[in-house]
Amino acid sequence: MSLAQGRPYLAIPGPSTMPDRVLAAMHKPAPNIYEGEIEEIAARVAANLRRVAMSSSHVAIYIANGHGAWEASIANVFSRGDKALSLVTGRFGDIWAKSATTMGVEVERLEFGLKSPADPARVEEALRADTGHELKAVLMTHVDTATSVRNDVAAIRAAIDAANHPALLMVDCIASLGCDEFRMDDWGVDVMVAASQKGLMVPPGLGFVWFSDKALEASRSSNMVTPYWNWHPRAFPEMVYQYFGGTSPTHHLFGLDESLKMILDEEGLPHIWKRHAALARAVWAAFETWGQGGDLALNIAEPAHRAHSVTAARIGNGGAERLRKWLEAEAGVTLGIGLGMAEPGTPEADDFLRVAHMGHVNAHMTLGALATMEAGMQALDIPHGRGGIAAAAGEIAKGVAQA
User: Fold this and answer.
1) 9-16+268-402 and 31-266: identical CATH topology
2) Aminotransferase class V domain: from which residue to which, for each copy (predicted)?
3) Could you tell me which CATH class the domain 9-16+268-402 is placed in?
């Protein structure tokens, strides 16, 4: 007998759970797209996007997903034949590098595997070797959604500065913005990309690119940008349609306007960062306890290198895929598939999953997902250590006490 009836829980790393308030804000007729309310909303959203990035920089909004934001950042910064250094710590760092290569950028890759963050010392060494300063930018992910590794952005900036290199620092924050602490200006980031469907709690469909004055100046010589991807009219619009390269994404804007109000003016970023950290520790505690009695392990061994928005884990002998299917069919909980951890079609590919704890998520949602996971392991006879839920509950109690 299935017990999946009732409201399902989508615990994948985007689209994340959307607040009812955001959905309600979107549930109204489209406005006049030429003037009036839409002008006020567009200007307010742009200003609040700078606030959520902790930045006074410029911001461009695209009707696109994160892949579109990647392409926009590449098109504006580079000319064909320019060189970039890409720090690859998982599937999404790999794909951003491949996107740049496909568009005509010569990409030098520093590979750090699937279980480790980028090493600032290696970055500094690579930049010191570039004596002609041919590398125009360093590309990195803050959180790689596939491996759940969290890179130290400030340390990479320090490595660039230590090498006395003029390269721009470009950071993918798609899986971290609104979840993990991020300070664009303080950390010396020149270009940052994100999307609407994760920590910002809005349906997929909007991509964002923030860029510094240094990046703006670099973009003036780019020969790769096309009219749609050009960030100049979007960041400095004279008419409201220029924010979006055409017709406004009206209902996404309604939702984003509401979610940014919740993030910035109600809960506040410092509390959001603490909440995500506490929920992440609960997930880690459960897996660490389960792993004491079975073939289960977190992908990232060092807690300081783990994302606070998503956790990648391994359950051996195909246990991850069996558990994922059981949870969706029998308990109404959907976990994320493993991405890039093993070759598709191999038996090892069924050993990986991801648990998202990003955006509009609280203690009972996280504990509920973990409890159903433990029930699934019992039902499927997947060996695991006992007491995982008690360990997770203990971390929730600590998190509340420390808030």
Assistant:
1) no
2) 52-344
3) alpha beta
CATH of 31-266, one of 3.30.420.10, 3.90.180.10, 3.40.640.10, 3.40.50.20: 3.40.640.10
Question: CA 392 to CA 398: how far, in whole Å?
Answer: 10
| Phi, then psi, of 344 in degrees rounded to 5 | -55, 140
> Does 275 score more than 90 pLDDT?
yes
**For 310-323, how does the pLDDT look when each residue is reduced to its tens digit (9 = 90+)?**
999 999 999 999 99
How confident is the model over 259-266, as a mean pLDDT?
98
Q: Is the dihedral of CA 25, 31, 34, 36 positive or negative?
A: negative
The answer to whether residues 303 and 285 touch, using CB atoms and an 8 Å cutoff, is: no
pLDDT tens for each residue of 247-260: 999 999 999 999 99
For the whole model, what pTM was predicted? 0.97
* CA 97 to mean position of chain CA atoms: 16
User: Quick one: pLDDT at residue 402?
Assistant: 82
**Which single residue is written with the structure tokens 């220029």?**
242
Domain range list for the chain? 9-16+268-402, 31-266
Q: Kindly report the CA angle at 285 between 282 and 287, in degrees rounded to 5?
A: 110
